[in-house]
Design goal:
alpha+beta
Length: about 70
């Protein structure tokens, strides 16, 4: 992961769950931009690059569903 220390506010538990999930599944994660309502992250694996919009919030269940949907696509 790149640039975790340069952000103005801390990540929520849900955001950390999603980021850790991506890293555990072999993705390289780069935070591009953080907004109050969403994070824009660049996710890469095996030479493919995805731009991923991660909504902000604290619901781990919601993030679990988002990560399952990302995995299926």
């Amino acid at each position: 992961m790149i640039n975790l220390d340069t952000h103005e506010w801390d990540f929520s538990k849900g955001e950390m769950y999603a980021i850790n999930w991506l890293e555990c599944h072999g993705f390289d994660v780069t935070i591009r931009k953080r907004y109050i309502t969403k994070d824009i992250i660049e996710v890469s694996k095996d030479g493919l690059v995805y731009i991923f919009h991660l909504p902000c919030g604290d619901s781990k269940i919601k993030y679990n569903q988002i990560m399952r949907q990302f995995q299926s696509s």
